[in-house]
Amino acid sequence: MAELFLDFFAASPNSKVLLTLRDSKQWALRRGQDFADAPLPVQSPCGHRLDSVSVEAAAQLFDLHQKLVRCVVPPEQLLEVNVFDGALNSTQIAQFLGVRPDFYVPFPRVDSDAERVNLADLGSKKVSTEDAEAEAFVKGDRVPICITGQIRRLELRTKLKRFIEPMLSAGHQVEVYLVMDPRNDTNYIHRAAGSRTAGGKYTILTGEFESLNETVALFPTNMTVIFDPFVPADYRFDPRYAMMMEEISAWGPSLGTALTKAMERARSHGRQWEALRRCWRLAQIADPVPPKAAIRLRDDVAVLQRFVPSLETMSRGVHVQNCEHYFGLNDKGAIVSGQGEVENYFTKPLELMLKNFTQLLSFQKSRCTRPLNPESVLFNSMVLSHVQPHYLENFPIRPGIKLQDENQQVNLCYSQGAHNTECFEDRELLEKTNGGIKIYKTSTTPQELLYICEAPEQ
To answer: CA separation (Å) from 285 to 54, 177, 226, 291?
Structure first.
């Protein structure tokens, strides 16, 4: 709209103006690639198109347009923003426009390295959706990594250091989608943040982040990151789902309490499925061609060691950790291969729970006698959508929790309760961690191991 600037500003001279900045040579190259028939960035170009001048001339006209805007618009009405330098402050933009949203969100970060690669490939052939579907995943294809859950439960440092950054170093084009409920009502399974454990010696903490803005500095600049403060709609599911999970019929006089608990659990599961669908929609906005592989990590999951999955050789389907199946698929972490499979993983659980619960329930009854739970909802959704489940022997992730001792020292710890034992092929890895500690339940003889903790970061 550069060519119409004077017309718009003359019609509304008291308006606030956002002037978007960019390296003019990069702008001219990309604009010429994607919109060669666009008008020149001059006032009233009278049909003169971008492809009628050289790249150098187009870049010079772009620079002159910026000077024109700065000359005409009073400084108090002008805000200059650059979406490519990684320093854009969405809070500043909102305040400039007089908007005060419920939750501020960092502006999406664009991978500058990917931008340079695209500029070098101006003459390359564009791949259609059909062609892309037929091709196998190759290194350099986009890999969306969706991190979903609550900002107050988020463990981010091990995800970055041991998984996301190694993926980048291995040559993968990583896109991170941080889909976080920004509200402060943190819910942990079994124990609430602020409660004490191990005979009162340790306090369970919330995560280190209170807002998405606090996560920005941790991400490398050569990475695309979408920050999304997502508040779920809390859809109502068929009440049979909640009643089956808590076996409501067996509660007798405590029926009301049990039903309330069951509905809370169902709502929590629904929020995760909503966040998955939200992530899929954001990835579609970023690039309409579906990715050939994608990864999902739950908010509280920590990565135990450096890990780069072999996406090039993975079978099509959804791959999860080979433990704690709970008669289904436990996707606290999931690696999905295949374009159709990626879409179905991120969208089908919510879709079937809302629109075809009876089909899910019938399939569950046909394969086992256990009631539906979130793991079986995912398994059934995948099978009904023709997505093959796979179980990975090496997927070094565990839900982590921050514990603070009486000396205010904080450790990232992993529960060792009976229901977690199955997953701890990685126990030796943790026990060998230099400076790590073990926390025992003091009221039992022999003492019961509660947590294995990593050494505090220096």
So the answer is: 31, 12, 11, 12
Residues 6+ apart with CB under 8 A from 345: 276, 294, 296, 318, 334, 336, 382, 387
Query: Which residue bears the tokens 């010079």?
Result: 60
Q: Rounded CA gap, 73 and 13, in Å?
A: 8
Sheet with strand 173-181: strands edge to edge: 224-229, 173-181, 142-150, 293-298, 333-337, 317-321, 389-392
Burial of 337 (C-beta count, 10 Å sphere; 0-12/13-18/19+): buried
Q: How far is CA 232 from the centre of its chain?
A: 14
Phi/psi region, residue 254 (left: phi>0; alpha: psi -120 to 50; beta: rest), is: alpha
| The total number of residues written for the chain in this structure | 458
Closest CA to 207 of 272, 273, 330, 302: 302
In order along its 458 residues, the chain shows pLDDT tens digits of 788 999 999 999 999 999 999 899 999 998 888 888 889 888 988 888 888 999 999 999 999 999 999 999 999 999 998 877 766 777 788 889 988 877 777 777 766 554 433 433 433 334 444 554 456 898 889 999 999 999 999 999 999 999 999 999 999 999 999 999 998 875 544 456 677 777 788 888 888 899 998 998 899 887 889 999 999 999 999 989 988 876 655 555 566 777 788 888 899 999 999 999 999 999 999 889 999 999 999 999 999 889 999 999 999 999 999 888 888 999 999 999 999 999 999 999 999 999 999 999 999 999 988 889 999 999 999 999 999 999 998 898 988 888 888 888 788 888 875 455 566 555 565 555 556 788 887 666 677 778 888 877 65
How are the residues of the chain apportioned to helix, strand and coil, as percentages rounded to the nearest 5? Answer: 40, 20, 40
Residue type, 356: N
